[in-house]
Write a structure and sequence with these properties.
By secondary structure, the chain is an alpha/beta fold. The chain has helices spanning 38-45, 68-74, 89-99, 107-116, 132-145, 162-178, 190-196, and strands spanning 2-11, 15-23, 27-31, 53-58, 61-62, 75-78, 150-154, 182-186, 199-202. Helix 4 crosses helix 5 (132-145). Bound molecules: adenosine-5'-triphosphate (ATP). The site of adenosine-5'-triphosphate has 10 residues, from helix 1.
């Protein structure tokens, strides 16, 4: 089933997309040179921005018809600059769950999500002390724990060395397949895309 479809979409002076289809339950990687509109495409898919022209459908209905707060719970976008509170890893989980009025996972569960994202730090570590790549992966762990329908990652491996990149994408893909999460990732790493994508959208 088509999860997203775009037809003749244009954002004045920024980017245009003739026809793009993203299928449900698959891993789609978006590649293309700098400035071609990859990050903008992700923002369109969770309605962070709206097009000036054209049609974007989510599950066969215009995305503009969805309640954006609910849509963004289904379709999580992780941009390159993630936001974490100046607090411990555990308390970041607690705060994000608090916003959703949900009970946070147990320490054991949090540790599992961190492990999945190649983070082997104590839950008491303050997020201010983390590197850029670690912060991004802690945020991925929080987002994954919410079990979204769609997880969109903007250059998830740009701050990581090759083996950590490989481990992260391997684990993420496995988790998403198992939990029927549609994974969409923007990357400049063509090898990683070839290895893990079910579909590659090349915007060159
Ligand atoms: N808010 C904005 N206002 C004006 N122009 C913008 C805005 N956001 C992005 N652009 C421009 O739109 C184009 C597409 O940007 P986008 O960030 O989607 O590209 P990208 O393919 O993700 O690039 P990169 O690979 O460098 O991250 C670029 O030319 C960028 O300079």
């Amino acid at each position: 089933m088509d999860l997203f479809s775009l037809n003749d979409v244009q954002i004045q002076g920024i980017a245009s997309y003739k026809q793009i289809v993203i299928e449900e339950g698959r891993t789609t990687f978006i590649c293309g040179k700098s400035g071609c509109g990859k990050s903008t495409l992700l923002k369109l898919l969770n309605a962070s921005i709206s097009p000036d022209r054209g049609e974007i459908n989510y599950r066969g209905k215009p995305i503009a018809n969805y309640n954006t707060v609910l849509l963004r719970r289904d379709v999580i976008l992780l941009s390159q600059n993630v936001f974490l509170f100046d607090n411990t890893i555990r308390n970041n989980f607690v705060q994000f769950y608090g916003y959703r009025e949900q009970t946070p996972p147990t320490d054991e569960k949090i540790a599992e999500f961190l492990q999945l994202c190649s983070i082997s730090l104590s839950l008491d570590t303050n997020c201010q002390e983390l590197s850029g790549g670690e912060r991004q992966r802690v945020f991925v762990a929080i987002c994954l724990s919410f079990l979204p329908k769609v997880l969109m990652l903007d250059e998830p491996t740009s701050a990581l060395d090759d083996s950590t990149s490989e481990a992260l994408i391997f684990n993420l893909k496995g988790y998403c397949v198992k939990n029927k999460i549609t994974l969409i990732a923007v990357t400049h790493d063509k090898l990683l895309a070839q290895r893990y994508a079910d579909t590659i959208i090349n915007m060159e």
